[in-house]
Design goal:
With 524 residues, the chain is an alpha+beta fold. It contains 16 helices and 11 strands. Strands 1, 2, 3, 4, 5, 6, 7, 8, 9, 10 and 11 form an 11-stranded antiparallel beta sheet that branches. Strand 5 and strand 6 form a beta hairpin. The protein is globular, with a radius of gyration of 29 Å.
């Protein structure tokens, strides 16, 4: 066989630090002809052809893709292989699983589960795209007859994840150059030579993004901070209407996932949007028409009805977090407690689903959407939004300072609950009016209000979470090892509650002190 050396000149666009290179074949190009030309011009040998089927998994809001990673599941006679790939398409972690994992804790311990926990947290994994691929393989040989890269000439057929009726789409043929470890420079030179010889255009290395675009979709993105388009001169009533309309859309967006009980974060996001609506209808009532004010008790009722499911979910996640992150050695011993808490959570979720399917919630949704339509009685306050928002923020900040001082003086759960509510209300208002406040003046205040609210809420909740876990442990039928492990969880939660109380104390002092110090006004 004639040896063909690889031209080692590497153009600026081809970096040896890149872990793979992908080229798109021109429309109408023959893969058979390309395979022959590759063998003629470069030191490559044919390998076996492959046909594969696999499924890309991600969270509802695309957290893995946003983290620069993809996760795919491939089934074969040996089982199911889960692969974690970086943005270039190179496999970083892999592990065998018995079935399609729903959450990170369904994956065996190891680097892949650690990466998944870091990126997805407690969010459920869903099938995003199903792929069927056919490919022709080559291996590239250096002067020592050692394989330094593999080439795959492949074509993908894709469809959206399970449960959809979308038709299948076929992507154009593409060529991938995959270096073996330790041969990045030689592989880069080979990729550069292919690019020069054939004039191929570089293709997007993110296969999932290419598959979604072929289906007319874009990768999902995590939901960021609440954003409401406001201009300083619009009437205050119209500003509040826009805030409430954005919150209403947020509620509707996560409602299907909450009804289907997909993962705990749908409940968290639903509660967050409802809680912000409660804040808006209470703190901004002076800019609301009477037709909107009457909804305030209804949203308070809705938030209250989510409490049992939220408490049950928090107890379960506390145990799972302990199992996965604090003490992995207790994972097996804590399975009975996990099962008991999951049963309680599922029952609470079913009760919440009954609320969402009831007439009261249906009427609330219909009437609220009708109330939020533009026009009507909304311009009740004609004051400019910037002037009116300044006054609302000043009131909220004054209330927080007073509540913080009272909580420090009285040291009662009731006083701390009022301070937490005031901190959360200020954080919500800062979110609502973020578009009217210079960023350098917004971030510090918003972060301080959020941290105070979170510390106070955490300090108040953790003793209840510990009591729920202890109660579930006392009712379960399990051996000594399981009971000892459950006791460790309860001890850990009590210790966390003490730390949260200390943090809350410090942040309360900071908030109270800010009321005595000179400060610039909260002006948008």
């Amino acid at each position: 066989m004639i040896r063909r050396r690889v031209d080692r000149r590497v153009p600026a666009g081809i970096s040896p630090m890149t872990t793979s290179w992908t080229f798109r074949l021109p429309a109408g190009a023959s893969p058979d002809e390309l395979a022959q030309n590759l063998a003629k011009r470069f030191p490559v040998q044919r390998e076996e052809d492959l046909s594969e089927r696999y499924t890309y998994l991600d969270t509802w809001d695309g957290r893995l893709f946003a983290a620069g990673a993809t996760l795919d599941l491939r089934r074969n006679p040996h089982g199911a292989l889960l692969r974690w790939k970086d943005a270039s398409g190179s496999v970083r972690h892999r592990t065998w699983v018995e079935d399609v994992p729903r959450f990170a804790w369904d994956v065996p311990p190891g680097p892949l589960r650690d990466a998944l926990l870091q990126a997805a947290g407690m969010r459920r994994l869903l099938p995003v795209v199903e792929v069927s691929s056919e490919s022709r393989g080559f291996r590239a040989l250096n002067d020592e007859r050692k394989t330094f890269a593999r080439l795959r000439l492949e074509r993908l057929r894709v469809r959206l994840g399970a449960g959809t009726s979308e038709p299948e789409r076929t992507l154009p043929w593409r060529l991938r150059v995959l270096p073996l470890r330790g041969y990045a420079e030689e592989a880069a030179a080979l990729a550069a030579g292919i690019e020069r010889s054939f004039g191929f255009e570089r293709d997007e290395p993110a296969e999932l993004a290419a598959c979604l675009r072929a289906l007319g979709r874009e990768p999902a993105r995590p939901r960021g901070r609440l954003r409401v388009p406001l201009l300083p001169g619009i009437p205050a009533g119209e500003a509040v209407r826009r805030v409430l309309a954005v919150l209403a859309r947020s509620i509707r967006a996560v409602e299907p996932g909450l009804r289907d009980d997909l993962d705990p974060l749908f409940l968290e996001e639903f509660r967050g949007a409802v809680a912000r609506t409660v804040t808006a209808t209470a703190a901004l009532a002076d800019a609301l028409p009477e037709a909107a004010v009457r909804f305030a008790p209804e949203f308070s009722w809705l938030l209250e009805r989510t409490e049992p499911a939220a408490a049950a979910t928090e107890a379960l996640l506390a145990v799972r977090t302990f199992r996965l992150r604090e003490a992995p050695e207790t994972e097996r011993e804590l399975e009975p407690l996990d099962a008991a808490l999951e049963k309680a959570r599922a029952n609470a979720a079913q009760e919440l689903r009954a609320v969402l399917e009831g007439e009261r919630y249906a009427d609330l949704g219909r009437e609220w959407e009708r109330c939020l339509l533009p026009g009507g009685d909304w311009p009740r306050s004609a004051r400019p939004a910037s002037e009116w928002a300044r006054a609302a923020l000043r009131r909220a900040r004054t209330d927080l300072v007073e509540r913080s001082a009272a909580a420090l003086a009285e040291r009662t759960p009731e006083a701390r609950a009022l301070a937490a509510r005031a901190a959360r209300a200020l954080a919500h208002l800062l979110e609502f009016f973020a578009g009217l406040i210079p960023p350098d003046r917004l971030e510090g205040r918003l972060e301080a209000a959020r941290r105070l609210a979170e510390a106070l809420e955490r300090a108040a909740r953790l003793p209840s979470v510990a009591a729920s876990v202890a109660g579930a442990a006392s009712r379960m039928e399990a051996g000594p090892a399981a009971l000892i492990a459950a006791g460790r969880v309860v001890e850990h939660l009590h210790a966390a509650a003490r730390e949260a109380a200390k943090e809350a104390e410090g942040r309360l002092a900071e908030a109270a002190e800010s009321g005595r110090a000179a400060r610039e006004p909260d002006e948008p």
